[in-house]
Amino acid sequence: MSQCISKKTLMINEMGIHARSAAKIVKLANKAHFNIWAIRDSEKVSAKNIFDLLSIACPAGVWIEFVVDDAMDIPVLNALTDLAELGFGEINGESAGTPEIRLNGVSASSGICIGRAYVVDMDSIQVIRKYHISEPAIGKELKRFKSAVKKTRDDMIAIINDACQDIREHTDILQTHISLLKDKLLYGKILETIESEKINAEWALKKVTSSLRSKFNRMADAYLKERATDIVHVSDRILMNLVGADMADITRIDRQVILVARDLSPAQASQIKQETIKGFITDLGGKTSHTGIIARSLNIPAIMGLKTATNQIDTDDILIVDGTSGIVIVHPDDSTLMEYALRKIDYEAQLSRFLKYRFVESKTLDGFWLGVMGNIEIPDEAQLVIENGGDGIGLYRTEFQYMGRNDFPSETELFDSYRNVVQQMAPRPVTIRTLDVNGDKALNHSEITEEQNPALGLRAIRYSMKRPDIFKIQIRAILRAAHFGSVRILLPMISSCEEIMEARKMLSIAGEELKQESLPHRSDIEVGIMVEVPSVVVLSDMMAELVDFFSIGTNDLIQFSLAIDRGNREVAYLYSPLHPAIIRMIRQVTENGRKQGIPTYMCGEMAGDPLNIPVLLGLGLNEISMNPQSIPAIKRMISSLRLDACSSLVEEALRLKTTREIMDLLHSTYGSLLYAAV
User: Fold this and answer.
1) Is residue 116 within 8 Å of residue 258, measured between CB atoms?
2) Beta 327-330 vs 318-322: how paired, if at all?
3) Separation between Cα atoms, residue 405 and residue 472, nearest integer Å
């Protein structure tokens, strides 16, 4: 049975509901599947009829209530109140005033929001004075710094305790920041600098932080580069407490706005209340930042890395934030405002439809089950996989625990982290990839030297083989965590059979040691390899005899096979998952796996695009893994297809010579399904 849902809004534009504003209301209302009403006092009319709307006379200063007959039309209700709260773009000449500005950034969290800007100053202290400390005063200066660190720690614990339920499931991010407060690399080095150079705490903090930030910024990997931001955020909070300055308090915002800031730390983002913050945009940061992860957990649009947004936007400016495409529109004109109001309705309606597929079995119409898993980088993201209906974790990247420190994590640290994820996901499987480091991901304490081409250098399994002591600590932790659920181990950057044999030998040794030490563990876990080097495809018939599963990492496989650096704009256009060579390579791997009786999985970006699902089904994949937010749409796509038809499509695709021909085949066969899914 349907239930009426309503929202009240105040007419704030000078003319209230008149012909032009009524026409906008009708255009949006006609997107509703059921009745939608406008009520003033006791008078109730259809919001889909312009004459009815004009008949109830709603001047400025009058409250109007919009009512939908069914929850399916909540997106329309939201769009109507958004538009009314902006005065239909007619306040102070906004409908024809300042020229429209478009800014491009990095999408950190998808979705569309429309509202007024609220610019906040989250910057740290910009001018820091350096002065020397006399020998007798060093102790007092050290104590002052330690007090500021303690105050910062207490503040962050309070934020964790006050966080809403959605954020509370992601407090590992804030706990990581708390641990940085006592890390030797930061805390210890600052104390040492104060003592050895006899300088004030503020300057020592700035000097050490700048050095660490410089180290991380030299790394090519975007995810690891973002770890410099974590250090800066922690440093900023310490600095504010050192000088006695107040941090901007976004919890005091009492109206619905779009937050605009130069930067937001995870601690600040954790204070966001969804009832007041529609979305946020920042000059700094990126998709892999912890702040972006929190935005995705809150399901609010977020765009980062805009560079100059705070210089071009003032509080109360009308903004459109398209978190899906990474576009911010400032001072949208009338047609743009309506275009995005309609897009927002379509997006939210589509999201609502997809969410219905979160917890359905990912089965084709003819009964074939294709596992749909999530990729994660930190333990907090396991909850996102569960919330989006993931069948497990197909790729758990483990590099995070090794970064931003000057000593390797202990077996206990790694075990606790892995066990946390495994217990959250149980009985679903968790695929843990062993450490994937290279010259660009060099740890602060490692002895890795600069390499001319680190992507093809000392990386992943090669590093683990060179440092068996580090590798053994990690695999012991994984085997111990396997005692608490279903765990698979995944070896990255394999290129030869010898590497597999050596890794399995070390796994056997680690298991035997744990047995002798009477530590609970499982030694019989599945061992698989990443298929990302062309030599693995060529040798896949032999390698299938040595492993329990294949996991195709399409990001690197495509780059290495087609000789493309997709970060190079000059050749990025050549990067295509549907290149005939890539389809043939995947087919070769799945066929050789099938002959040997082992499954083939995929954990690259190719798996998260609905366009590719008919091909992946037809190629014989047994499981695919992706960004957790992509899971519902992929499940919906799978449930709309037949395996036999997909297999026939692939047979035809294998006879085609170009990427364009394959894409044309997909669109001609599944066009309507594809357009509904993307």
Assistant:
1) yes
2) antiparallel
3) 19
Give me the catalytic one of 58, 177, 579, 603: 603
Residue identified by tokens 């009492």 is 254
Which residues have C-beta within 8 Å of that of residue 75, sequence separation ≥ 6?
A: 31, 344, 345, 346, 347, 348, 349, 352
- What confidence score (pLDDT) does residue 440 get? 34
Domain identity same for 280 and 311: yes
What pTM does this model have? 0.67
Beta-bridge partner residues of 258: 117, 279
DSSP string, 433-480: EPP---STT--TT--PPP-SSGGGSS-THHHHHH-HHHHHHHHHHHHH
User: Do residues 421 and 382 make contact, with C-beta atoms less than 8 angstroms apart?
Assistant: yes
Structural domain span for residue 231? 135-243
**Structure-token match 């005033």, residue found:** 97
Q: What is the CATH number of the domain that holds 304?
A: 3.50.30.10
Q: Is residue 215 pLDDT above 80, yes or no?
A: no
487 phi and psi angles, rounded to 5 deg: -130, 140
Indicate which CATH number applies to the domain containing 198.
1.10.274.10
Q: Is residue 130 part of a domain?
A: no
- Check whether residue 386 and residue 317 sit in a common domain: no
Q: What is the CATH number of the domain that holds 71?
A: 3.30.1340.10
Q: Give 3-state DSSP helix, strand, coil % of the chain, rounded to 5.
A: 50, 15, 35
Domain CATH number, residue 390:
3.20.20.60
Same domain, 598 and 667: yes
Across-strand partners of 327? 104, 322
* pLDDT band with cut points at 50, 70 and 90 for residue 425: very high
Q: In angstroms, rounded to a whole number, what is the distance separating the alpha carbons of residues 460 and 434? A: 8
Q: Are residues 65 and 154 in the same domain?
A: no
Strands of 63-68's sheet in order across: 5-10, 63-68, 36-40, 43-46
Query: Which segment of 103-107, 119-123, 178-182, 518-522 scores lowest on mean pLDDT?
Result: 119-123
Check whether residue 540 and residue 594 sit in a common domain. yes
Rounded to an integer, what distance in angstroms lies between the CA atom of residue 186 and that of residue 231?
8
Q: Are residues 312 and 370 in the same domain?
A: no
Residue in 290, 331, 521, 579 annotated catalytic: 290
pLDDT digits (tens, 9 = 90+) for 46-95: 999 999 999 988 888 899 999 999 888 999 999 999 999 888 877 644 54
Closest Cα partner for 319 from 306, 327, 311? 327
Q: What does the alpha-carbon distance between residue 199 and residue 30 come to, in Å, rounded to a whole number?
A: 67
Question: Which pLDDT value is given to residue 64?
Answer: 92
Runs of H (alpha helix) within 250-312 = 266-269, 290-298, 309-312
Axis crossing angle, helix 138-162 with helix 189-197, rounded to the nearest 10: 160
Query: Residues 255, 329: one domain?
Result: yes
Does residue 4 have an active-site annotation?
no
Query: In 3-state terms, what secondary structure has residue 7?
Result: strand
Q: What is the pLDDT of residue 574?
A: 81
**In this predicted model, what pLDDT tens digit does every residue of 280-331 receive, in sequence order?**
999 887 665 667 777 877 788 999 989 889 889 988 899 999 998 899 999 9
pLDDT above 70 for 154? yes
Same domain (yes/no): 422, 551 = yes
CA–CA gap between residue 492 and residue 464 (Å, rounded): 10
